[in-house]
Prior knowledge:
About 70% of the residues lie in helices and about 0% in strands.
Amino acid sequence: MRLPSGTYAQNYGQDMALVRTKARWVFMAILMVFLFTVPQWASNSTLTLTTLMGISVISVHGLNILTGNCGLVSLGHSAFMMVGGYAMAILTSKAGVPFELALPISGLIAGLVGIIFGLPSLRIKGFYLIMSTVAAYFIIHWLILQFRGLTGGTEGMSVPPADLFGISLEGKAAFFYLVTALAILATIVAKNILRTRAGRAFVAIRDNDLAAEVMGVNLWTYKLQAFFIGCVFAGIGGALSVEYFSFANVEQFPFFDSVWYLGMLIIGGMGSVSGVIYGVVAIKLLQQLAIKLGPMLQDVLNPQAAVALGLILPSLVIILFLIFAPRGINHILERLRNYYQLWPF
């Protein structure tokens, strides 16, 4: 972490601290106050949007560990969200498991399923691994539809309202607070995972898996760990999504969501924890902008093009970032911050 001029680490604790300067502490305090006062002034639509952003942040943190840090490109991330969502629905509605226990269990179930579909990564990589994760999505989708007695098939299944230690989470504001707290926790956990031995091994595998293996990194162990951790995050995100809508259906987890999650990493900055947040916010706001602009442009554009603006606008921005800023928003902000911190030197 680059520090402003005149700021030095005097011990190991300071060197490993996530927040070092007073300015950053002030910024974090202002951000926390802003986040936890959103329900006081936001409309229902804004509250829904910010809650869905928080759920996406949790899920994309998992994809960032898997793809951004370990280099295992996955296009089946929404499938593991689907596993977590249906695990939550079955545990709470049919097994009577309390929400506070069902949430981590759903994440663990998604992680175990991720290990199963991560096994091909031990023998294949690149385009072939991408295709295997695409196949994982359709296999999971098909299996959920086949076990109608358990999952409700195409009709889906209702989920009882969330109840956290006796506190009802039926209202939008209450669920927003829960998702915000979990998104902050997920961000801290993701940041610290990347500072561990496993996190360094992930980066070594991403950069050059043959060199990493020569240096003693166990590819078999760490690749499966990356799939497990990434899918645990996805499973928790999927479980929260199902609880928020009080319903589980395969249509909540379309395949194209996996593409958008990858696009969020591209825009925000692949391999960056902060980039996950920037990318999620950027894509979600672009999609909302397209929804607003669509009706306004129907007289100018072809009606079909106006309707498809929600796909066209974010896709165009992703292409522009790939061409002009492939390291994402996070790298742009880092360059600006480094310039400011090193001034006047």
